[in-house]
């Protein structure tokens, strides 16, 4: 996992022993008080109880220092407690750093790399009718634009070319990863968060576990996960092990792991809607607390009001309109890394124009997952339930009252992924 950091001639004079993830500054008193007021307001508006006020203050006391993003200047004002107004672009960065994670995931003194092994972009459309989650393979080669230096803002970091995306967090911190993805896809990303191992475990516990389907027995001694075929409710460390496993699923590659992660994430989306989780104040508080306790967040995202507003924007999105997409790549000559293919332009264009996407049937025929569960019937797809034509014939509705359907971007067949409505199962690595 410990890969060499990208080269930079401008860095030669600086100490090589300092991890390039930046030092975070503590909030000033007034910022902490302002954050506390926002937390109390958010939780009180949702719960309307004294317990809610206590919970909100608890959020403030446990929150980590935040990071300022250059792109967050596009955000104006504070949203109310309803669904956030307009669209959302949020980058979730999974760090493999062992610092502060105990010994369960390796010795933090021995495994000191700070690699963003998971980089996912969450896009919620302006009208809240569709959501795209884009995963960028950890070994994908990218260009890194000039970035602010977290340790010396007056002396920016030099641009880089053809470096693996998972080295960018170590090079320039959260803001640099954001700027790199912005440069890649052509949109502004004003919200971001870095999550470590225990953060993933905490978030899965906050929602009460996630039901995942396993088609074949998974055995992975590297992450310590062993699952028989069937449906398993995963929470805490087992959920993290499932998301981290690479050797136990697919072809043992990072691309296979991404497909496995979609099994978990699509199941999570179905759970959040089916259980009414996003309307439950206690669960919303648990999710916010897990995030604030375990994640390093950008300034705006650390506001619990924003967290709740983003959650509410997703609660009514049709599951078939939530698409998990693996950014299209192909192995470079010699292997060891991948590079974006021409099909990436179609993904970028859909994000830039804020249009829903449709995955080609061939793209969904994924060799790393299976739509068949041999031991348990998958849950029903609520999006498949339609009223009989005789009860509500489309032709009877006045044309003026029927909004025009937004254009749909049909992605090329080499773009793999799935919708949240599709129930898939993890396939074991037989290699």
Automatic annotation (TrEMBL):
Coiled coil start-end: none
Protein name: LCP family protein
Biased composition (Low complexity): 1-19, 385-403
Source organism superkingdom: Bacteria
Region of interest: Disordered: 1-20, 367-431
Residues covered by the Cell envelope-related transcriptional attenuator domain: 116-273
Record-linked Pfam families: LytR_cpsA_psr
Entry similarity comment: Belongs to the LytR/CpsA/Psr (LCP) family.
Organism name: Agromyces larvae
Gene3D superfamilies: LCP protein
């Amino acid at each position: 996992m410990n890969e060499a950091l990208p080269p930079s001639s401008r860095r030669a004079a600086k100490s090589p022993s300092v991890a390039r993830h930046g030092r975070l500054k503590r909030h000033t008193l007034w910022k902490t008080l302002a954050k506390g007021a926002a937390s109390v307001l958010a939780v009180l508006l949702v719960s309307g109880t004294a317990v809610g006020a206590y919970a909100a203050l608890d959020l403030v006391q446990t929150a980590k220092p935040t990071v300022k993003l250059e792109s967050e200047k596009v955000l104006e004002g504070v949203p109310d407690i309803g669904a956030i107004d307009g669209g959302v672009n949020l980058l979730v960065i999974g760090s493999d750093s062992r610092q502060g994670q105990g010994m369960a995931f390796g010795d933090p003194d021995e495994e000191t790399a700070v690699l963003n092994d998971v980089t996912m972009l969450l896009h919620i459309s302006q009208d809240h009718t569709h959501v795209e989650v884009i995963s960028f393979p950890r070994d994908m080669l990218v260009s890194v634009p000039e970035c602010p230096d977290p340790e010396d803002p007056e002396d920016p970091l030099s641009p880089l070319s053809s470096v693996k995306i998972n080295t960018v967090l170590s090079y320039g911190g959260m803001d640099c990863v954001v700027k790199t993805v912005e440069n890649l896809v052509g949109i502004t990303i004003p919200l971001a968060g870095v999550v470590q191992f225990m953060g993933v475990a905490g978030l899965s516990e906050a929602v009460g576990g996630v039901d995942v389907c396993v088609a074949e027995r998974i055995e992975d001694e590297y992450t310590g996960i062993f699952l028989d075929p069937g449906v398993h409710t995963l929470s805490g460390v087992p959920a993290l092990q499932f998301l981290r496993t690479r050797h136990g699923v697919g072809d043992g590659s990072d691309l296979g792991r991404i497909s496995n992660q979609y099994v978990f994430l699509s199941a999570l989306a179905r759970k959040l809607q089916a259980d009414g989780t996003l309307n439950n104040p206690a669960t919303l508080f648990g999710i916010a607390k897990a995030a604030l306790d375990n994640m390093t967040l950008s300034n705006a995202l650390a506001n619990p009001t924003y967290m709740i507003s983003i959650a509410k924007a997703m609660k009514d999105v049709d599951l078939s309109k939530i698409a998990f997409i693996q950014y299209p790549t192909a192995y470079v000559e010699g292997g060891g890394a991948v590079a974006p293919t021409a099909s990436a332009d179609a993904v970028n264009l859909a994000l830039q124009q804020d249009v829903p996407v449709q995955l080609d049937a061939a793209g969904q025929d994924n060799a790393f997952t299976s739509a068949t569960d041999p031991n348990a019937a998958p849950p029903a797809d609520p999006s498949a339930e339609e009223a009989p034509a005789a009860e509500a014939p489309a032709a009877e509705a006045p044309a003026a009252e029927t909004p025009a359907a937004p254009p749909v971007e049909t992605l090329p067949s080499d773009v793999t992924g799935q919708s949240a409505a599709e129930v898939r199962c993890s396939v074991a690595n037989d290699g």
